[in-house]
Amino acid sequence: MNKLFLYNTLTRKKEEFRPIKDNEIGLYTCGPTVYNYAHIGNLRSYIFADILVRTLRYNLGEEKVKWVMNITDVDDKTIRDSKIKYPDLPSMEALQKFTKEYEEYFWQDMQSLNVKTPDIITHATDQKYIAGMQELVKNIVDKGYGYIKEGSVYFDVQKFAKNHKYGNLINLDMAGFKAGTRVDADEYEKENVQDFVLWKGYKEGEPVWEFDLNGEKLPGRPGWHIECSAMGELELGCPFDIHTGGIDLKFPHHENEIAQSVVGYNCEQPINYWLHNEHLLVDGQRMGKRFKNFYTVNDLKAKGINPLAYRYLCLQTGYGKPMNFTWDALRAAEDGLKHLYNQVRELGRERGEVDSRFKEKFKEELNDDLNTSQAMAVVKDLFKSRIKRDNGLATILDFDKVLGLNLYEELRTTYSTTSTSTSTSTSTSSSSSSTTTTLQPEDPGFKLKELIEKRQKARDHKNFEESDQLRDEIEKLGYVVEDTKDGQRIYKK
Ligand SMILES: [Zn+2]
Question: How much is the pTM?
Fold first, then answer.
């Protein structure tokens, strides 16, 4: 493969990526804490992780990357808000019902943004992971880096910092550290370097798991940081290759993940490459509910904006730069996306072959720490070049394996929805010289196109029973059918 360079937060350098194993790359992404809708700042992290995974696969092949993402379905916030929403349910039931709902919304957002589904999705409350977390806590305690206080278990940061490095991802001022001070909260400021909680002792009204730690009964629940250390190790081993997340997770979450795994798994460097995407600002400000600038995918949809315009905007910026979100910037991105769709449509339906020179350039930009803004410039160059006439379509569809802008689906939908007005005859006598050759049966769009045409006929004949059956068949292929006054509108689920 071409060399792939990634900016590693651990070394503060752009480094050549060297996987631990040739045949499989392990990648872990800190997933959402499912207590609310994800806002576009959170979503930037998942678009970034998706681009990274797609880039690795573009270089190495589909089967070489194992992508794990967790769902944090137990922590301070999920417990707090599930109690508010379902005060009458037992706490465990309330937590499960509440987090399931927001997890559903999350996957809908991922689909709208065309983020691939991770190979493995881990839920923190899954019994096998709870058992793994408890084992990790026990290892830490047995090695003398954890202690019990009032029913909870804490990590001894001072002892750790004597023998290992604490402050791998950010510079921590250990001078201000007060030994023996503890913090129970999952999230805290960098100024307060304190012993953090591994296992939280039972509090009334909270969901509870039994935990027998060397004979001592410690009913309670895991802390947030221990969740990711344990789930990462259980699925990918220790060490593994890449860990991603938003920049705000560097401390305390990721720093504590490192400390836990170093001790508990006897692994001096648990993860070789730490990648963090930069902040998202809204109109130059931090995003937050109290600033009333907390935007979700549903907000984009409500304004009639295709969520993929947001993906396009993220691609233009690149993950490593702070991004300032404005509605104007998003609308400009949507215009850019529409323009790209038009350009792709104008290429006709002759695929040609992937142009190796353009592919090389495109890959070179991606492999330079996922420089997607430059990769998008290569796309522009492609449409300016002569290559586009013969090999444009194959080349741009190849690029879209990484860009993920649904170019293929857009193309197919266009031809499918307009097919009732244009001839679908397979006769080649008069149209052989034109670029509008019909889809071939082996083409994935072929069946869809057939179904759409059949359904249109059924509707023209007011045969609504058949039309409904055909709608079901179309939906089975992963598309949604909408009947508008201008005819059927088909789009990807
Ligand atoms: Zn995490």
Answer: 0.84
